Structures are given as structure tokens and as C-alpha cells.
TrEMBL record:
<protein>
    <submittedName>
        <fullName>DNA repair protein XRCC3</fullName>
    </submittedName>
</protein>
<dbReference type="GO" id="GO:0090656">
    <property type="term" value="P:t-circle formation"/>
</dbReference>
<dbReference type="Pfam" id="PF08423">
    <property type="entry name" value="Rad51"/>
</dbReference>
<keyword id="KW-0233">DNA recombination</keyword>
<dbReference type="InterPro" id="IPR020588">
    <property type="entry name" value="RecA_ATP-bd"/>
</dbReference>
<keyword id="KW-0238">DNA-binding</keyword>
<dbReference type="GO" id="GO:0140664">
    <property type="term" value="F:ATP-dependent DNA damage sensor activity"/>
</dbReference>
<feature type="domain" description="RecA family profile 1">
    <location>
        <begin position="71"/>
        <end position="252"/>
    </location>
</feature>
<keyword id="KW-0234">DNA repair</keyword>
<dbReference type="GO" id="GO:0000722">
    <property type="term" value="P:telomere maintenance via recombination"/>
</dbReference>
<dbReference type="GO" id="GO:0005657">
    <property type="term" value="C:replication fork"/>
</dbReference>
<dbReference type="InterPro" id="IPR016467">
    <property type="entry name" value="DNA_recomb/repair_RecA-like"/>
</dbReference>
<keyword id="KW-0227">DNA damage</keyword>
<dbReference type="GO" id="GO:0033065">
    <property type="term" value="C:Rad51C-XRCC3 complex"/>
</dbReference>
<dbReference type="Pfam" id="PF26169">
    <property type="entry name" value="HHH_XRCC3_RpoA"/>
</dbReference>
<keyword id="KW-0547">Nucleotide-binding</keyword>
<dbReference type="InterPro" id="IPR058766">
    <property type="entry name" value="HHH_XRCC3_RAD51B"/>
</dbReference>
């Protein structure tokens, strides 16, 4: 569909012409940050809403649809410093993306959420288990067992008797999806069954980009985006229907500019899969591996940074963190 057919004000139309964005597909698939076109935040929201409705009317842009009454429940990270950044943790019933370079600590934090969800609500959990869908690497079972053993050190806010009473390993349901068909089967059959029975209250997909990058060529961008929207629609449905936080781990792609408004000036990467995927998540977080190191007792860790890229309920910001035996913890600076 041509952009001229969208109901847009002349200012937005002129910006699109300058950027040579002529069709709805150009808008949804462009890797360019729309804020760099000289448009205000409200202009970008109007443009994305109009493009998404024209591309697929039944598709909702989650970040723009958050106007109704929202649940106040949050799934804790297990760390006070990181919880401050996220105002308590992951929002329940919504889709959150966590992207970053290899080795930044994305899977580590995802595992931490899989343990945190098993605590009672008063301790930042949801008193249930987690479904972890792995699409590329084997599930890090040894690291999970280490995190379980170290829970008393990470969660000093929780009575040790309560920690000892939770059978963490038995409440994490691991699925492997080697292709999009198996992922679809998992999301439409096995995951809803676990959620409906109350066995799980967290869904983790690690990672989103792996399958969509491997199964499609660059020339198949339209079909890829259709599949992305179908996939994200299912995630939204599961999150809303079962009041479940959904965490999608994403890879990154190199950028050729340092002017991206959603990234630090020092960053040369951006989340993979472009705007077609970015428009489907409510919260975008990024983890960066920094140059420095920090020490704690007999341990040392490369310094990390957890950054809020966008979220309707959060201010832009970041916190430094490190990865210890007990998990990911914020570093006070």
C-alpha cells in the first residue's frame, strides 16, 4: 500500500518523502529510527498506528495500545538495583524484549526470571513456574543448577526456609524449537496447556531472531514480517489471556551510524528484525557488555549495563550490572 493513501498530515508526508519511504512495507521494515526524520513522538505514534492498521488491520501495536487499565503486578529481577530501573520488574500480561550482543548476559537474566517467578507475590514472584523455549543453543542446565544453589545469596530478602521449600527445577518447563513450525506447535498447544493449568506464569523465548534469520532470505522480507506479526500476535494473546509476562530474548545487528536515538552514542548495534518486530513489543531492554571489570570477594566479572530503550511506563535510563555465581546484580556506582 502506498503511503499517500494513509490519512496523515502534510508534515508527516513530507518527512516520508525526504526519507524515500514510499509504501507501508517501507515504514514497517525500515531499520531507520523514525524519530530521526524530524518527527515528534506523537507524529511517530500516529504514523506507526496508521501503517500497522493498513498492513494488517487486526494487528495491534502493543506499545500504542496501552491505554486501558493495567495490572500493577511486576515480576521481580531478584535485584533491588535492577528493580528500581524497571519499577519492580517485568510487567505482567505484556511482551518485553531483551536484546544484546553475545555474552552480554541476556540468557543469564532470563534464567533469573525463571526462578523469581516461583516466589510468592509478596516477594516479587507469581507463585508459579516458567516455560523456557530455546531456539538455538542447548538449555544451560548446569548454570541453572548453580543459580538455584546460590538463591540464598541473591535473595537475602526471602527467608531461607521459603527458598528451601521451593522445588525450582521441577517448575521450569523446557521446550526446544528448531524451526518455525515446531515453535508454532509449541505456542498453540503445549504452552497454553501449561498456562491454563497454572503450572507456569512466565514465558521465555530465547531467541526470537534465530529462527526468523535462518529461515528467510533478505528477498523474503514480506513473508518474514507476516510470520513475525503472526508470532507476536500469539504472544500477546497468551500474555493477556493468562496474565503472564512474556520475555523475548533477541539478537542484535550492526549499525553504520552512531546517531540512533534509542542507543548510547558508543553503541554500534541495534536489536535484530527491524521495525516490523520493534512495533510488536511493549518494553525494549538492552544489555551491553562494557570494557571494565568489577570484583566481589573471590569473583570478578565484566561490567554490564541494562538499558531501558523504550517503555510507556518507564523513563529512559540504565544501570550497571555484573554477573556473579548467584546471578545478575546491579552495581552501585
Amino acid at each position: 500500500m502506498d503511503c499517500e493513501q494513509l490519512e496523515l498530515n502534510p508534515r508527516i508526508r513530507a518527512a516520508l518523502r525526504r526519507a524515500d519511504l514510499r509504501t507501508v512495507q517501507d515504514i514497517l521494515c525500515s531499520s531507520q529510527d523514525l524519530h530521526t526524520l524530524g518527527l515528534s513522538r506523537s507524529d511517530v505514534q500516529l504514523l506507526l498506528r496508521a501503517a500497522a492498521q493498513a498492513y494488517r488491520p487486526q494487528c495491534q501495536i502493543t506499545a500504542l495500545a496501552l491505554r486501558g487499565e493495567q495490572s500493577s503486578l511486576r515480576l521481580s529481577t531478584g535485584c533491588v538495583v535492577l528493580n528500581e530501573l524497571l519499577r519492580g520488574g517485568l510487567p505482567v500480561g505484556r511482551v518485553t524484549e531483551l536484546s544484546g550482543e553475545s555474552g552480554a548476559g541476556k540468557t543469564q537474566l532470563a534464567l533469573q526470571f525463571c526462578l523469581s517467578v516461583q516466589y510468592p507475590v509478596q516477594h516479587g514472584g507469581l507463585d508459579s513456574g516458567a516455560v523456557f523455549i530455546s531456539t538455538e543453543d542447548s538449555f544451560p542446565s548446569r548454570r541453572l543448577q548453580q543459580l538455584i544453589r546460590e538463591q540464598p545469596n541473591l535473595r537475602s530478602d526471602v527467608p531461607k526456609s521459603l527458598i528451601d521449600s521451593i522445588e525450582f527445577s521441577n517448575n521450569i518447563y523446557i521446550e526446544h524449537a528448531a524451526d518455525l513450525d515446531s515453535l508454532q506447535v509449541c505456542l498453540t498447544r503445549r504452552v497454553p496447556l501449561l498456562l491454563a493449568r497454572g503450572k507456569a506464569r512466565l514465558l521465555v523465548v530465547d531467541s526470537v531472531a534465530a529462527l526468523f534469520r535462518s529461515e528467510f532470505q533478505p528477498s523474503d522480507w514480506l513473508e518474514r514480517n507476516k510470520q513475525l506479526i503472526r508470532f507476536s500476535s500469539k504472544l500477546h494473546q497468551l500474555g493477556r489471556e493468562y496474565n503472564t509476562p512474556v520475555l523475548c530474548v533477541n539478537q542484535v545487528t550492526e549499525t553504520h551510524t552512531h546517531t540512533h536515538t534509542h542507543l548510547p552514542l558508543s553503541s554500534s548495534v541495534s536489536p535484530a528484525l527491524g521495525l516490523a518486530w520493534a512495533n510488536q513489543v511493549m518494553v525494549r531492554l538492552m544489555m551491553h557488555r562494557l570494557q571494565g571489570t568489577v570484583s566481589q570477594g573471590d569473583q570478578s566479572s565484566a561490567l554490564r549495563r541494562l538499558e531501558v530503550v523504550f517503555a510507556p511506563h518507564l523513563a529512559r535510563g540504565d544501570r550497571n550490572a555484573a554477573i556473579w555465581r548467584e546471578g545478575v546484580r546491579g552495581v552501585q556506582t
